[in-house]
Design goal:
Elements lengths: L1 E3 L14 E6 L2 E6 L5 E3 L2 E5 L2 E5 L2 E8 L2 E16 L18 E15 L2 E14 L1
Antiparallel strand pairs: 1-2, 2-3, 4-7, 5-6, 7-8, 8-9, 9-10
Length: 132
């Protein structure tokens, strides 16, 4: 499973749907477009002396006709970077001022649902990103 959003500088601050790309040992299985991710921001980290609430869990769901997908993420570890810092090579204004902290996380992903009339399920270690 690969998922994410592509947000160019002209769309900072806009909420765009996710793109979820599913494969198995035979190749491509499906694409889903969940509208949002539900986060439980009960983990706390410190970035440059500032305390931030970041995800400890996340969930997203999509239904496409008879196909369904549910993804649950349990976060084990998280670090953050302030994107306003010049050493990152960002020009002034190229970050999202409302959510300037780039959060990188490691945890367990659980997927379940149905694709093409067959049940799908899986559990594995994953790496996830978001902004706060």
């Amino acid at each position: 499973m690969l998922y994410g959003r592509v947000i160019g500088p002209q769309r900072l601050g806009e909420r765009t749907p996710l793109l979820v790309y599913l494969v198995d040992s035979l190749g491509f299985r499906a694409v889903f477009r969940p509208r949002s991710i539900s986060y439980d921001d009960s983990r706390v980290i410190t970035v440059d002396g500032r305390t931030l609430s970041v995800p400890s869990r996340a969930t997203f769901v999509d239904v496409r006709d008879a196909d369904t997908l549910r993804v649950e993420l349990d976060i084990e570890d998280a670090i953050g970077t302030d994107t306003r810092r010049q050493p990152l090579g960002l020009s002034q204004g190229s970050y999202n001022a409302e959510r300037p902290y780039f959060i990188q996380m490691k945890g367990t992903a659980r997927i379940s649902g149905r694709v093409g009339g067959s049940a799908i399920s899986g559990v594995g270690t994953g790496f996830f990103e978001t902004y706060r």
